[in-house]
Write a structure and sequence with these properties.
- The complex is a heterodimer of chains A (270) and B (189).
- Chain A is 31% helix and 19% strand.
- Chain A is built from 9 helices and 11 strands.
- Chain B folds into 2 domains: 41 residues; 147 residues, Porin, CATH 2.40.160.20.
- Chain B is built from 2 helices and 9 strands, in the order H-E-E-E-H-E-E-E-E-E-E.
- Classes of the chains: A alpha/beta (270), B alpha+beta (189).
């Protein structure tokens, strides 16, 4: 046998040994695509919160749902957009809360693919069957230094939930305590975002209706998560992009993750 | 009557089968001829190891090339680094490319390149819902050296992602802009 053939055979066997079956089982952890197929990923095929990004995530085997950044327009329609101001990521100006539906319909993201901004109701409901929809309730209208109308926002989310199949679970993250109470009273599973674990005591004391705590991976430990579980709450963590950080996050035992690199998160789980 | 019909149908099937076989033989013979043509007429052959990236992952691999004057044909097999090594999930990428190295100055060569590549990655344990990517990129290839060459290429173009949905009932396709950049070392026989 030639030397070259030997080298090729050796390389192939090395490759196979590297790619052999693993591993730890994280089957109970739910994977929700952050903004659809991931947020702020350099090589992402589509912009977060765009139709293609959300559709791609929902149709991918192993994805349990999506997290969406939902804002109320001037005409009282729920639109998907992450940043406060439109000129941060689109060809528009102002804020979602200070713009009409007609104006928002003309906008697109400042990417090569130029994806359009979409409404929450643009997502086909059949894609959401047996999936979780995590609504990040973005209440602030920074351009007008005001807050979105809670009653209209709540009514639109309720309409959206009614339009979805019974197997679709809608959960809502709120940015202020008044919204938290209103969504909890309306029967939603509510989520509270904390930036450090020492804020959890405040939530436990003052917001008993909160069902899920969402927190970045780097500020929470396995013990912290166990403590939250002991209080009967669930934990969702985010902020992982590499395979290593995703694996570390899984080992802490959260109930779900917001995946910025969806493919990596799914491979790591299965 | 029924027997005759059956017999006619059998004959038709047989002739179709012969036609198919003949066609397949012709195709195989044609492929062998092309291969022999490449093998016997090329000025040089080389092997190459390279590292690069596309929109999916970092890629490392090895390739084999034939050369006729300025025309350079390369076939290469790579693997996605993160998936294969960090996550232990093999993600191969096979590519074929043609370059026309029209600029030559001393040991420096440069020219346009067209590359087609196919990659596959299984995300869950279900093989049916594995993701497939097809890429067709155009760009340039640059190589510097004599027997041992430094190789670099940069391409952009089209990438298609296709997979069966999680229900497994429908195949979906997504098209987007693709990019591929690589550096490597080649050895010419």
């Amino acid at each position: 046998m030639h030397k070259l053939e030997l080298v090729i055979l050796f390389s192939l066997s090395l490759l196979l040994s590297f790619s052999c079956k693993k591993k730890e089982v994280f089957s109970k952890i739910e994977i929700l695509g952050h903004g659809g197929n991931g947020l702020e990923i350099v090589n992402a095929l589509y912009h977060d919160n765009s139709y293609n990004s959300i559709e791609l995530a929902l149709l991918t085997d192993g994805c349990d749902g999506v997290e969406l950044d939902v804002r109320l327009s001037l005409d009282g329609t729920l639109w998907l957009y992450h940043d406060n101001e439109l000129d941060d990521g689109t060809n528009g100006e102002g804020c979602i809360g200070s713009s009409s539906d007609a104006y928002l319909s003309t906008l697109h993201y400042s990417t090569m693919a130029k994806e359009s901004l979409i409404r929450l109701n643009d997502i086909p409901k059949n894609y959401l069957e047996n999936k979780k929809v995590y609504i990040d309730g973005r209440s602030s209208i920074s351009c007008a230094d005001s807050t979105a109308d809670l009653s209209v926002y709540l009514a639109r989310v309720l309409e959206f939930q009614d339009a979805c199949a019974p197997s679709t679970e809608v959960i809502v993250e709120t940015r202020n305590d008044q919204w938290e109470d209103a969504f909890a009273l309306a029967g939603f599973i509510t989520i509270k975002y904390i930036t450090a674990f020492d804020q959890y005591d405040d939530v436990a004391l003052n917001l008993p209706s909160v069902d899920i705590i969402v927190v970045t991976n780097d500020v929470i430990s396995k013990e912290n998560i166990s403590q939250i579980h002991a209080d009967g709450r669930e934990v969702i963590i985010f902020g992982m992009r590499s395979a290593k950080s995703t694996r570390e996050a899984y080992r802490k035992g959260p109930d779900g993750i917001l995946a910025d690199n969806l493919r990596t998160a799914i491979i790591e789980k299965y | 009557m029924t027997v005759r019909k059956r017999s006619v149908a059998k004959n038709i099937r047989a002739s179709l089968c012969i036609a198919r076989n003949a066609q397949s033989y012709r195709l195989s013979a044609f492929s062998i001829l092309i291969f022999l043509f490449f093998l016997t007429t090329s000025n040089a052959q080389s092997v190459e190891v390279s590292a690069g990236f596309n929109r999916l992952d970092y890629q490392v691999g090895a390739g084999y090339s034939h050369r006729w004057g300025a025309l350079f044909l390369t076939s290469k097999m790579e693997v996605a680094v993160t998936s294969t090594f960090a996550q232990k999930r093999l993600a191969p990428r096979l590519s074929v490319g043609a370059s026309y190295l029209l600029l030559k100055k001393g040991q420096f060569e440069f020219g346009p390149e067209l590359v087609y590549a196919y990659s596959r990655q299984r995300l869950t344990n279900n093989h049916k819902t594995a993701h497939h990517w097809n890429e067709l990129n155009i760009g340039y290839r640059l190589q510097v050296g004599d027997k041992f060459k430094f190789v670099h290429s940069l391409n952009g173009g089209w990438i298609n992602e296709s997979f069966y949905t999680n229900s497994g009932n429908e195949r979906v396709n997504y098209n987007n802009l693709g990019v591929y950049a690589q550096v490597g070392v080649s050895y010419t026989f």
